[in-house]
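Ligand: 59V. Inputs:
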Amino acid sequence: MAGFRDREKQHFPLESSQAVVDLFVDQLECSDGPNLALLSTVIGATEHKLTINRNVSGSDNHSKTLEPIFPVIELSTIEALYTKFITDVKSGVDLSSLRKDVATRELVKRVSDIIWSRLTRSYYKDKAHLQSLYSYLTGNKLDCFGVAFAVVAAFQVLGFNDVHLALSEDHAWVVFGEDGTDTAEVTWHGKGNEDKRGQPVGLEVTEKSWLYLCGQAVICTKEMEVAALVSGINPSISATKDSVEMSSLQQDLLWVLYDKQHIQKYPMALGNLGDLEEINPSPGRPSCKSLYLQAIDASKKYYDNKHVYPYTYLGAYLYRKRHYKAAILAWSEAAAVVSNFNYNRQDEEIYKEFLEIANEFIPNIVKAVSNENSSDPLKLPLLRDPEVYANLLRFYDGICEWEEDSSTPVLHITWAHHMVFSLSKFDPKVREFLTVASEGDSDDDDNSDEENNEHEKRRGSHSESKSGPSLRGQRRSVGSDKVGKHENGANANDS
Ligand SMILES: FC(F)(F)Cc1cc2c(N3CCN(c4nnc(C(F)(F)F)s4)CC3)ncnc2s1
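Predicted complex:
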């Protein structure tokens, strides 16, 4: 792929958010697909100028007047970086291998090695703003998502259109080949785990770990890869300050992708848009709650309801709005989803979500309502509501089922303490109204003892339920704050 055509050049210099949106719209309407390297470099340059070194007060004379600023993005800057990327990628590949029209596993490993070899030896992997090609080309740093994205962008530059990004809720890899069903690891995951670059992801899928979603990962089209880079925008200037220009650009771009139906099969992108809409609702657009529900529907429709985060987004929102009964309902659904998996030591991100729900948010709710005398006589106080109690039991049951048959234990004494605390705050009467039905039950109520024992062992005894999520004050962007320090992450020479 040569340099830019007039179609790209005519957008520059980019002097406003709208100009960036226009570039994305034009690229998404390109017959030969959007140019990933171009868009990632532009977004990375914009993010860099709007978030890095803006924490110093008075560092730019706009901060006094509070008028929105937009950094001018020059064509020459982007062209130079783009050319550097093409040169890097092409120099590392034996051009004769480019005569094929689908990639091979060896070529995928080779391209992953090229990206890998240029990374700084050792750096703080879960820093913000390490997700774009701009970071890669100007700082030689990428987070785990960024490496996978760069590999896919590199294959586009090499003229292959079969290599696509595969995304789970905490990892990324690629699919490739004749029918796009070959898989390959191209990046690392988490802390202190040997990377498996070049290997297929087959084994982990059979291990039923959440990290690979039991074969229900999001397989991206080119346009969904653009959605992933837009989701990966991180508007944070500091732990407490965000660039309003960057977050509204991200919001505008997600609506463009939404309208073109490029995030209808991407639950996390819908959730990200919901979070942005909660903070700054767009007039005439679906509500944030509707977006969270659309994410859940997408998971049910396209991914066999195996994604946990759609419920975690919804519950986090309900918890913030103090809709505690609905939040607990949502959380019991997240637990029902995670009960499909076996816990594996690389699943710690989702473990932390459930830990926070069980040991912080639910106890907080129980404390908050324990002195509630609801003014509305028709509203059953939470601690006297058998449906809430039932959903709380379903929540814990889902987590227990997750632990069952797992290689690593989930629960420990702290969980038990919080669980007992929360359940004991409920009025004893709620237990009277509760019948714990079991899937295997016949019509007659009383099962024979051995049948009951059999049930207990099988533990298939809880009807399907609805579940939910955790509150995340700070936004997490794709991959960046998830990847722990990983010394091996950049030691390509040790490969
Ligand atoms: F590629 C990896 F390895 F980085 C995995 C991906 C993560 C992720 C994402 N995230 C991760 C989950 N995330 C959440 N933010 N809040 C969440 C909730 F707990 F409230 F649900 S989940 C933010 C955005 N958003 C879009 N796409 C992706 S692809």
